[in-house]
Amino acid sequence: MIFNSIEYAIFLPIVFLLYWGLKKNMKLQNLFIVAVSYLFYGWWNWRFLILIAFTSLCSWVSGLLIERYRTPYGKAINIANIVVNLGILGLYKYYDFFAQSFADAFLGGHSDKLLLQLILPVGISFYTFQALSYSIDVYRQKLKPTRDIVQFFAFVSFFPQLVAGPIERATNLLPQFEKPRTFRYPLAADGMRQILWGLFKKIVIADNCAQYVDTVFNNYPAYSASTKAVAAILFAIQIYCDFSGYSEIAIGSAKLFGIELSRNFHVPYFSRDVAEFWRRWHISLTTWFRDYVYIPLGGSRCSKMKVVRNTFVIFLLSGMWHGANWTFLAWGAFHAMLFIPLILLGKNRKHTDAVAMGRVLPSIKELGQMVLTFALVTIGWILFRADSIEMAGHYIAGMASASLFRVPWIPSKWHIGPLIIAIIAMALVEWIDRSQEHPFTLRIVRRRWLRWAIYLALLAAIVLRNPGTGNQFIYFQF
Amino acid sequence: MRKFIIRTFAFVAMATAMMALLDIAITYQAQHSDLRPYWKWNHAIRSGNDADIYIMGNSRAWCHFSPAILDSAFDANTMNFGLDGAGFDWQLANYNLYRNNNPKPKLLIMTIDYSEFSITAGYERHQFFHLFLSPELRDSVFPVHHFSWAERYLPMYRYANYGLDKYFDKKPYTLYKGYAGQDRHWGEFDNTTSTNPRYAANGQIMEKMERHLAKASSEGINMVFVHAPTYSRYYPTIKNLDSMWTIVHQWSEKYDIPIIDYTSDPICDDTSCFYNPRHLNKKGAERISRQLANDIKELNLL
User: Fold this and answer.
1) Which residues contact A96 (CB under 8 A, 6 or more apart)?
2) In terms of Cα–Cα distance, which of B216, B179, B238, B206 is closest to B61?
3) What is the pLDDT of residues B166-205, one digit of tens each?
4) CA-CA distance, B33 to B39, in Å (whole number)?
5) What 3-state DSSP class applies to A179?
6) pLDDT 10s digit of each residue in chain B, 302 long?
7) pLDDT above 90 (res A292)
């Protein structure tokens, strides 16, 4: 069941009404959340429910065992849980990739007997990391293990964030399942707003960008440099609107149930350097790697050589997390190379607040910094989007030609005109709310009728500009 | 909670009203569209077409037979209702709609194809959507193709879910009496990738055909089966020809319907007349339309 489907439009209100009909009975509410989350996940493939149940059970049992046998077995139990969970993830997500690479290197490409060709379970990277963070936090004594298995299963499988995040920490989400939820009108109304905004970004912008992007990337040698550049920019916008759109819908849906999830995106394309970009892009994954990999390796409080190594490690892991392809590794390495100079010069935390705070417009310098950062990130997205490193190389090289100054390919005015208007509208709205809790608070619109008119306009745009391609969210594949 | 539900309900009500208005506007636009494929259905539901010659079939009818050539040959009114990608189920639905609103044609040209009697998959399903506002029309289409309840009853859902570009983009052909000559050229024919699936004839659709032939015959409508040209190297790859033509010959004898077979015509070797192995381009279509006019004259069908 995907968020932009009629099934979810029916599922969500029914679940909402039944959930609040349970009258603040915390245990029943949690049990209900587990049941509907498993229904939601099983909609794709019920067989994978066994996998998520096993992952949840392992981490829950590990938490209890770590607490009970902390000395002398706590570390061993924690490591065992990590090995089991990452082993499952590795088997489904990476085994074939490494087997194929091995066969290419040593067996002349004959990989038939080596490959398992397993179907990748939706969201496995997300819920595995979420479950792992729990046992690690228990081991680090940042968290008391829960004895309530239903609470824990609800934490791992909570349907809004189950398949594509945000990757929640037990320290944030688990306590919310430990107390009765009461309905809060402002929270629920805010959730509805976020759902609408997420759908707008996904359907009106991301799915329409995808049509142009897919056409060009699938046959890039046939297009001019300017068209390639436009497609790369549109892919940067597509992936942002697709993934942040998903996160908005997830966070909004959770709010309807009285649950507050972590923020996953914070206007990343208004960043003034790559370090700021990474504080604002896929925040839940970035902070996961920071807390569970980067800092344990020594972080930035060690020799410069080690800082470089640590930075490379987390960016390569981040790339690898996205998928089993050399392009993702190259994407991670590219960002590491952009990040390392900043960290070595001590400028990686130069921009910690929102850009142009207290001003309507950015300065020329800030604008230049944002454009440069966006351009660098967009080059990185070409690596991310390409089928192979060779293709990415050809694509980038193809952009450096005289045809860069030609008019780019425009499929039809009916398609591209409204898309440009939607992108500008989105950028304006997110600029106005860049320092707010989420990018669509509409805090400056005081009159209710005007807010409702905006909601209806967004809804009309969603319906009228749906390209009808039924695109899945990009991050479902990770 | 109460306040939230009331406001959500109010918003949903307003949104539904807005969607209903949009639905009516889009439907009106499509009902007055001359773009393929809406033309076929829009003309089927209108009276006053008064076709002397009604051409029935799939894409191998709609882009092969020019009404202008047949009109000038017979001083008649020809309309081409060939439906791209359609099996006989859709073709019959279209013909029945036409007959509900128009007098019988003098001649019914039925192009018979090897995928004719299998169930039509969801090809260009949006061609039906603008018919849904009328329950009578909607129900006349339903038996031949299934639509979800959301497509049937939620305003705008069917349009949004299929993409509205198709209703406004001017790229699809504008038709002349249902026909558009394809100004395209032959591409490379790859024999290895052109193997055909074996289309399974559906018993219910065969029965519909039998009833259709019996009814048209009882109404005194002249009929002719036409097998449109197919590129000669492609023809042997078609798998279910023999079994299908055995049945067509039985119908031919039973209802006294002549068969015009162009699959051994010299045009089938001439790639300058095709744009792909199954479809003639404009040059080929005009040539075969003149040939069809001559053959109809020889058979004294009109």
Assistant:
1) A115, A116, A117, A118, A324
2) B179
3) 666 655 567 789 998 888 888 766 655 555 666 677 788 8
4) 6
5) coil
6) 889 999 999 999 999 999 999 999 988 888 888 777 788 888 888 888 899 999 999 989 999 999 999 999 999 999 999 988 888 888 898 899 899 889 999 999 999 887 778 776 667 778 888 877 666 666 666 554 567 788 888 888 888 877 777 666 655 567 789 998 888 888 766 655 555 666 677 788 889 899 999 999 999 999 999 999 999 888 877 777 777 888 899 999 999 999 999 988 999 999 999 998 889 999 999 999 999 999 999 998 88
7) yes
Tell me whether B187 touches chain A (CB under 8 Å): no
List the Cα angle A350/A351/A356 in 5-degree steps.
Answer: 140
**Residue to test with chain A: of B148, B165, B167, B169, most A Cβ within 10 A:** B165
- What is the reported pLDDT for B122? 64
Q: For the segment A51-95, what is each residue's pLDDT rounded down to a tens digit?
A: 999 999 999 999 999 998 888 888 999 999 999 999 999 888 888
Q: Cβ contact (<8 Å) for B163 and A469?
A: yes
How much is the CA Rg of chain B, to the nearest whole Å? 21
Of B154, B163, B169, the CB nearest to A468: B163
Please report residues of B whose CB lies closer than 8 A to that of A462: 160
Residues in chain B closer than 8 A to A469 (CB atoms)? 163
Q: Where are the domains of chain B?
A: 2-299
Burial of B77 (C-beta count, 10 Å sphere; 0-12/13-18/19+): middle
For residue A212, the distance in angstroms to the closest alpha carbon of chain B comes to 14
Give the domain B2-299 fold: Rossmann fold (3.40.50)
More confident residue, A185 or B165: A185
Burial B108-123 (b: 16+ CB within 10 A, else e): bbbbbbbbbbbbbeeb
Is A322 designated active site? yes
Chain A nearest-CA residue for B3: A185
Chain A neighbours among B 115-174 (CB < 8 Å)? 148, 150, 154, 156-157, 159-166, 168-169, 171
**CA dihedral sign, ordered A137, A139, A140, A145:** positive
Please write the tens of the pLDDT for every residue from A6-37: 889 999 999 999 999 887 788 999 999 999 99
CA gap B19, A9 in Å, rounded = 16
Cβ atoms of residues B282 and B182 within 8 Å: yes
Residues A61, A67, A69, A73, Cα dihedral to 10°? 80
Tell me the nearest-neighbour CA distance from B8 into chain A, angstroms.
9
* H or E, element range at A440: none
Q: Write out the two tokens for B161.
A: 């879910």
Identify the CA nearest to A268 among candidates A165, A187, A376.
Answer: A376
Distances in Å between the alpha carbon of A84 and those of A58, A99, A124, A315, B160? 8, 20, 13, 23, 44
Chain B residue with CA closest to A190: the answer is B4
Beta carbons of B22 and A466 less than 8 Å apart: no
Q: A185 to chain B: which residues are within 8 Å by CB?
A: 1, 3-4
In whole angstroms, give the CA distance from residue A39 to residue A45: 10
Token couple for A176: 């919310």
- Output the six-digit token pair for B148: 């979800």
Q: A266, A322, A335, A438: which is the annotated catalytic residue?
A: A322
User: Which of A6, A189, A463 comes nearest B19 by C-beta?
Assistant: A463
Instruction: Report the amino acid identity of residue A48.
Output: F
Evaluated on CA atoms A350, A355, A357, A363, the torsion sign reads positive
Amino acid making up residue A405: F
Residues A37-49 as b/e (b if ≥16 CB within 10 A, e otherwise) read bbebbebbeeebb
